[in-house]
TrEMBL record:
Record field: compositional bias (Gly residues): 150-161, 187-203
TM region(s), chain numbering: none
Coiled coil: 485-512, 586-613
Protein name: Uncharacterized protein
Organism the protein comes from: Paenibacillus amylolyticus
Upper lineage: Bacteria, Bacillati, Bacillota, Bacilli, Bacillales
Basic and acidic residues bias: start-end ranges: 103-117, 162-175
Chain intervals for the UniProt region annotation (Disordered): 103-126, 143-203, 261-284
Compositional bias per record (Low complexity), positions renumbered to this chain: 261-275
Record's keyword terms, sorted: Coiled coil, Plasmid
Length: 1035
């Protein structure tokens, strides 16, 4: 039983259409509703969409129409009518009020004809029921709703019976001489009167249809007008009149013989004697009257404010409404379907992907809607506890896994928004380690794979009216989904391993933070106390928190956090989640009891972990909001002082430079050496705090990713079970249940391509230092996504052609870390721990020494530790680029990117110069250098020079084998790091178009090529620590 698609719609318009019994289901993400969609005048319609825009008036005579959406809108005056059609003229006898009379008697003695029975008028058509439910109505004109019953048709009066004809008189007797006499005849019988025709019954008036308007947020629902008139009964009818019977004829005068004399007689006509008269006709009977018709039944028209819970079947508080609107199935009519909510989640994902503040607000609105209109486990438990279920509740329980998995995914996306993460759980300034040119090479293959998924979807759509064809596509789709589930499980396991690694790194950073906190408290206590007095804050802790939180947050400012701090949809979604969404459970109850018992324990163990992770992340997201509010409160206390500083914007948007400027009046009141000590300690502390925040954010992102993948696996497995159960039944394979399964699978595979293109776009942004966000995907088809891939190539070509700044290699940028400046780090190194050294823009010396060089990226890193050996031997050093790169572009604008860390080793042989004595720094001869690769720009991106670098001199490797035997760090006073890489010159002046850079196609340093972080040993050239022609930065 197939249903033809609406011919005017695009193949990829995502309007799902299917029929079940006498209902046609239309399901979409966004639907422009026109009369064209209602081509089957015999069916009722159920429309489900996130937004429904009414484009023109709609007539659906006598049929029920349910429209359920988040937003119902219109641009002008619109009418929707389910009023019954007027009775056809041939069934309404106003113009022919009386049936034909009987046939007129023609001959004497004929009976009068019987009057025709009156025809019955048709009943009026009942108005169809109208149910429109939405969160809000955005109407720019009146919305006129009518569900009137039509009037009943008038029946006909019965036709009159005709009078009979009188009987003929009999013939008088006649005598004749030459032939026989004619005797008299009897009179003819009179004709009977015809019976009157029965009255035709007039039709009843059509019942009015119920109208229910439900809204959650009051907006423009007052523009809705409703009309529910009953149909008037047809006018009463009369029976036909009876025809009169007529008299019979008089008998003729008889012949009689009269004697003449005694022997003679004469025959003659008698003057008195007659033959018998005819019988008189009988009057006809009057026709039978018809039963009077009745008016249609009245209906209810109700506009009511409802709650979000009604969209998943919770009862309205005023339960009388359900009785008043009977027989409307209001429980089902108010509910958003699983298929429609799935499409809404997809729509939210597309908005989230684009990353603009406006689109993030839209995504938050949609996700907030989903979390409030999808049932949680408590609702399912309440339903199960009932003694009986309605049909609707039974269907909901059958799909409990899908509902709760969908809720889970929405909650996770809300949590990501609250954490300031992009759709794929990365920071918004995240970039992949694979360079752009690799993405350019691989893109075509992934686009081809997505095309295959699109073909499967297209085959399903084109198999209209072909039940067998659609079932075949469904079977193929199940096979594809099995592979997808296996892929998801693999991704989840990878995420778990990566999270464990990130947690170890964060723990190391935390230890470093604790040591720096002590140092900061020692050198900064006097300064912070002076600042507290200047800002009139109540406690030293409040002042310290203001400084640290206010500035540390600035490095993680994202479109999401910008929206958070200004309130709006994201903050609202997080708040609602915290109130209602702490627990996320996926249940299995639609399966048989034995299967549930076997599977439930294992699944509950996994889910409890997933629930805890998501709840913890959500709590953290709420803390961001609270922190924001706290900062604003503190800013209120700072109003007077802030005005004197001449700075009035939010601290969340404050750069370190502006922060320094704000504190300048406090600096001026303190000794210069104290200020410098504080600034140095404070910046070192903040550098590591920020890096720790990034690591913890990454750990949170992995928790969310794992929960999201688990929810998707649970949903897809449940979908498969549900599809298999009903595929054998005689149901329309075009129903939204099946359509959404194919469409969701198609979107999942298309999302994998989108993920790749998103990474490619981020790689492009990193390469040319662009603030441009990923383009908004309209979600038409794969061709649109392939255009993004092509556009990047065009943009890159245009950038290279417009650039005046060729890549410039740099060598021997040498940074010396002295123990006097970094005592905690040197102490950590001597204990074979990991020491963190920040190279950041807030250090004025670094800014001065790298002046003139923009977009500095590192390909190689050499590290030397003078005085680490008293005898000749090798030194093995491990180093890590933290994964946060800061750049200045050729116009001095700052860019920050986050990526995975780069971890490598540098090893060299050293021969101390025995001739050095006293305080003279020993000279060392270095040879056989190996390792040192960071990124070659071809197989791996070059990270930025400006970052937090860590150094470790391990005592043994991961296998427990001894390293650095004979190395003694007790007398080491400095560490020397020498970098090689590429940079650009600053622009001579600011033209209209920004210049861009590009990545070298070959490693800048062939000597230290990146081969899985292992370099080839040097040929033995001896070098000294002090290299000429180097940029020296001594810290």
């Amino acid at each position: 039983m197939g249903v033809a698609e609406v011919k005017t719609q695009s193949l990829y318009s995502n309007v799902q259409r299917g029929k079940k019994e006498d209902f046609i289901y239309l399901t979409a993400s966004d639907l422009i509703l026109k009369q064209d969609y209602f081509s089957d005048a015999t069916a009722h319609y159920w429309v489900q969409a996130d937004t429904v825009h009414l484009d023109g008036s709609i007539r659906l005579p006598g049929r029920n129409l349910i429209i359920n959406a988040r937003v119902i809108s219109s641009h002008g005056n619109i009418s929707i009518s389910t009023s019954g059609l007027p009775v056809p003229p041939d069934q309404d006898f106003v113009q022919e009020p009386k049936a034909d009379s009987g046939i007129k008697a023609i001959k004497s003695g004929d009976d009068g004809g019987k009057g025709h029975d009156g025809s019955s008028g048709a009943n009026g058509m009942a108005g169809g029921h109208l149910v429109l439910t939405a969160e809000r109505f955005n109407l720019k004109g009146e919305l006129n709703l009518s569900a009137n019953g039509s009037n009943g048709g008038r029946g006909q009066d019965g036709g009159d019976g005709m009078d009979g004809r009188s009987g003929d008189d009999g013939r008088d007797g006649e005598t004749h001489i030459f032939w026989f006499n004619d005797h008299s005849t009897s009179g003819g019988d009179g004709g009977n009167g015809g019976d009157g025709g029965n009255a035709g019954r007039s039709g009843n008036g059509g019942d009015a249809g119920h109208i229910f308007i439900g809204y959650v947020v009051s907006s423009e629902e007052q523009r809705v007008t409703m009309e529910t008139k009953v149909g008037i009964a047809g006018a009463p009818t009369l029976p036909g009149k009876a025809g009169a019977g007529c008299p019979g004829g008089i008998g003729g005068l008889q012949l009689e013989t009269v004697s003449v004399g005694k022997k003679s007689s004469v025959t003659k006509r008698s003057s008195t004697k007659r033959s018998a008269n005819g019988k008189d006709g009988v009057n006809g009977t009057v026709g039978i009257s018809a039963e009077h018709a009745i008016d249609g039944k009245p209906a209810q028209s109700i506009i009511a404010q409802i709650g979000y819970s009604q969209f998943y079947g919770a009862k309205i508080a005023d339960t009388e409404i359900y009785k008043r609107l009977s027989p409307v199935d209001l429980e089902t009519g108010l509910s958003a379907s699983l298929e429609r909510q799935t499409l809404t989640l997809h729509k939210a994902g597309l908005a989230y992907l684009s990353g603009s503040e406006e689109k993030l607000e839209e995504a938050a609105d949609l996700l907030n809607w989903l979390q409030q209109t999808i049932p949680n486990e408590s609702w399912f438990n309440e339903v199960r506890a009932q003694s009986t279920y309605s049909e609707f509740q039974s269907d909901m329980l059958d799909a409990s896994i899908q509902w709760l998995a969908l809720r889970n995914k929405a909650m996770i996306l809300i949590t990501q928004l609250g954490q300031g993460l992009d759709y794929f759980s990365h920071p918004w300034n995240w970039v992949p380690l694979m360079p752009l040119n690799k993405y350019q090479d691989l893109g075509v293959n992934l686009i081809n794979a997505a095309q295959q998924a699109e073909t499967l979807y297209r085959d399903y759509i084109l198999a209209e009216n072909d039940q067998r064809g659609r079932l075949k596509v469904l079977t193929d789709a199940i096979s594809v989904a099995v592979n997808r589930i296996n892929d998801i499980e693999g991704q989840r396991q990878d995420s778990i391993k990566e999270r464990a690694r990130l947690e170890i790194e964060a723990d190391k950073l935390y230890e470093d933070i604790l040591s720096k906190e002590k140092s900061l408290q020692k050198v900064a206590e006097e300064f912070v106390e002076a600042l507290r007095k200047k800002l009139a804050l109540s406690t030293l802790k409040a002042t310290f928190d203001l400084i640290v939180n206010g500035v540390a947050l600035v490095t993680n400012v994202t479109p999401a956090l910008t929206a958070l701090k200004t309130g709006g949809a994201i903050a609202s979604a997080m708040s609602n989640y915290w109130d209602t969404g702490k627990t996320i459970v996926i249940d299995d109850t639609f399966k048989n009891a034995k299967t549930v018992e076997k599977e439930k324990k294992k699944k509950e163990e996994e889910l409890s972990k997933s629930i805890k992770n998501v709840t913890t992340a959500a709590s953290s997201g709420l803390a961001i909001i609270k922190d924001g509010i706290e900062i604003y409160n503190l800013m209120g206390q700072m109003q007077e002082a802030r005005d004197s500083f001449g700075y009035s914007s939010s601290m969340l948007a404050m750069s370190r430079e502006k922060f320094e400027e704000m504190l300048k009046p406090v600096y001026d009141q303190m000794p210069e050496d104290k200020v410098e000590e504080y600034r140095k300690a404070f910046n070192q502390y903040l550098n590591v705090v920020e890096e720790y925040q990034r690591k913890k954010q990454a750990v949170t992102a992995k928790h969310l990713e794992e929960a999201k993948l688990f929810a998707e696996m649970a949903q897809r497995r449940a979908d498969q079970d549900r599809i298999k159960q009903v595929m054998g039944d005689d149901v329309d394979a075009g129903l939204p249940l099946f359509h959404t399964y194919i469409f969701d699978l198609y979107n999942g595979l298309k999302l994998a391509l989108t993920d790749f293109l998103y990474q490619e776009y981020q790689a492009y942004r990193y390469m040319v230092l662009s603030q441009e966000l990923f383009p908004f995907v309209q979600d038409s088809h794969v061709a649109e996504l392939s255009r993004i891939h092509a556009d990047i190539t065009v943009k890159l070509t245009n950038a290279l052609n417009a650039s005046e700044n060729p890549v410039q290699p740099f060598k021997n940028v040498t940074v010396i870390f002295n123990e006097a400046s970094f005592p905690e780090q040197f102490e950590t190194l001597r204990a074979h721990g990991t020491a963190f050294f920040p190279l950041t823009l807030d250090n004025q010396l670094i800014r001065e020494r790298i002046a003139g060089k923009a977009h500095m990226m590192v390909s190689d890193c050499h590290i030397q530790i003078p005085g680490a050996r008293n005898a000749a031997g090798s030194i093995h050093i491990e180093y890590t680029h933290s994964g946060h790169s800061t750049f200045l572009d050729s116009y001095g604008q700052r860019f920050d990117f986050v990526h995975n860390k780069s971890h490598g080793f540098f090893e060299y042989e050293v021969t101390p110069d025995r001739g050095a004595t006293g305080d003279i720094e020993p000279k060392e001869l270095i040879r056989n250098e190996s390792g040192g690769a960071v990124g070659d720009g071809t197989s791996r991106i070059m990270p930025g020079l400006l970052s937090v670098w860590s150094i470790e001199v391990p005592g043994e490797d991961r296998g427990g084998l001894v390293l650095n035997e004979g190395v003694d760090l007790s007398q080491v006073k400095k560490i020397i790091m020498t970098f090689q890489g590429k940079a650009e010159a600053y622009a001579a002046k600011a033209p209209g178009t920004k210049f861009t850079s590009f990545v070298a196609k070959k490693p800048i340093s062939e000597k230290f090529a990146d081969h899985e972080m292992f370099g080839l040993p040097d040929t033995g050239t001896e070098t000294e620590i002090g290299k000429e022609n180097s940029i020296l930065i001594e810290l």
